[in-house]
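Morning. Coffee machine broken again, so started the prediction first thing and wrote up yesterday's gels while waiting. Chain of 347 residues, entered below exactly as on the submission form.
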Amino acid sequence: MFGFKDGGMDGGMDGGMDGGMDGGMDGGMDGGMDGGMDGGMSGAPRPVSGTTAAAVLPFDGMLGLAEIDALSVPQGVRFPESSWRPDLRAQLVLSEFGTTNWRQFDETETVPREKWQHVNGFTLAPPSLDIPDNLEAELALLMERARFQRNGARMAEIARQADHSMDYWKTLLSLTPANKPATMTLMIAGFTIGQMVGMYFKDFFHRARPAHYLPTLMTVLPTPAHPAFPSNHALQNELVGLLALRCLPDSLSACYADAITSLAYRIGENREIAGLHFTQDSDAGRQVAHWLDREFMGKLDIVQSLVAEARDEWHVSGRATLRSLPYAAPIRRRTALRTTPDSMAVI
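Came back before lunch.
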């Protein structure tokens, strides 16, 4: 991604052919025989005195079925829920979500490339960038952020969050597949569903990226190969944060809520600092996330089941409530957002 491709190909071909043919044959034969014999002998169990190598397991296979008492084998064994790999179990959430009517739009109100309205009233109608004042305001803000916010800390975050946003959630909430499998399943489902829904809307609006309007913006990362609106980073991470809050008992929700909300917001904002998204892209992504969580995710049977599992993972003893920690003050939303129960639109 950062120039390794060309150097790797040239150096790899030259050095590999010269060094590989000369050193590979000599070193491979000598080192392979020595290392293989030493490692194999030291790593493998040695036969007990008086036995043969064929009697050592697991290298000699398994016991024959004739030597097993079938009556002693447990009956009715089922795969343990806690043994699911979270990213694979998340596909079950995606499957149930896919049966909903999330794509059913109001044909009388929807205008391709301009406005999308669901039958339940949710609306996306971004300001047109064909209007010079709108475009100038968006580009001016991105240029200001490029000048003042592309510092060392932000640049490191932007690079890591391009493909590994989940690492930040794992760190914030101390998550592992072993200690919080149901919580991780729901959060990964947020990324999975957010990706699919975001791509649907990107195709509908087909919005150009900032660099398509102003190449001299010099994005931090290469411009992604899909449309801009809405921002998937904002959509996915906002949805992940909302699902995480569903998993927490009330005492911990009060403690973590500000940090979760701030992290989700910051990851989306970093894409603007990188020059990859307009503010309207991020705002819309967050709006879609709240709509999905409110109208669909919370109503899915599998989500409700996973939330119950997840809350057991977060069992807390001691105080009934915990005060909010001071390190994460509540974020301030842009005033350009307007939210009503029946409609959410970018204005």
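The chain has eleven helices and four strands. Going to sketch it on the whiteboard this afternoon.
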